[in-house]
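On clarity, I found the account of how folds are encoded harder to follow than it need be. What matters is that the chain and its backbone geometry are given together, residue for residue. For the editor and my fellow referees, an illustration may be useful. For illustration, here is how one protein appears when written out as sequence plus structure tokens:

___
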Amino acid sequence: MRAGAGNDLNRRRLLTALAALAAAPAIRTASAHAADPFATEIAPGVFVHKGHHALFSPENAGDISNAGFIVGNDTVAVIDTGGSARVGAGLKAAIRAVTDLPIRYVINTHMHPDHVFGNAAFADDAPAFVGHAKLARGLAARSERYLAINKELMGEAAFAGTRIILPSVTVEDRMTLDLGGRTLELEAEKTAHTDNDLIVRDQTTGTVFLGDLLFSEHVPTLDGSIRGWLAVMDRLTAAPAERVVPGHGPPSMTWPDAAKPLQRYLDAVATDVRRLIKENRTLSEATETAGLSEKDAWLLFEDYHKRNVSAAFAELEWE
């Protein structure tokens, strides 16, 4: 070997390795995104943004629910997008602080505005918008009211750019998404919190995004079936998970312990409403008394509890 040939070979090897590293689709180092407070990494490649426990307002721009994203070797999947285009843009910026990989999927766990109104921020990425098979119908039926009410609550500036984007890919039962070396299992649920609840399970880390099938701290809100919700939770709590992400609450929780307060609340409401119906009490009486044992356990109780009792009464009086 000629003099210096070894050094030349080592130099070429180093340059080749650096080029490969630059081209590799990888999550940036922790130091690159540690300063970004918008999203927390709860497991390798799994990030969650925690929303506020509040009603829609100009101050929070609809940032009142949890949202997240999962990074594979080839692409990124977003799970819920917040309550306005502004919140969605914040989530997108958090993604770009972590990776330059394309955003191929935006998954909505159900139709409520605080989980889908941020979709507009991702439209230019041309992802597949994924949801339960019943999501489009439910969201389309309420679209005008959702847009009008939440625009009024947030104001023009905070609501700017917000629009409804319906799913382009729907899940009837189960669906698998490949992010490159990482598989997501999507499961459509029977009527529970709504009639279009969808959960997302990351097979790599055992993390499950439950959407609003799980509330913590924030009082649950019923827009489906209280009997169905209790049944779904009984089934889900029997399935293992390393951690779960609630629709409202901490970025990450242990399972199945995280479900206990929610199940207790739903059971208290159902038990009290059934008793009142048996006693021939009225809906008005039920809304004033049913489930009050749970009052001190939840935030925003006064804002949502009576609606929950009304929905439960309408369902259970026909048992």
Remarks:
- The chain has ten helices and twelve strands.
- The mean pLDDT is 91.
- Residues 211 and 247 are 4 Å apart (CA to CA).
- The two ends are 89 Å apart (CA to CA).
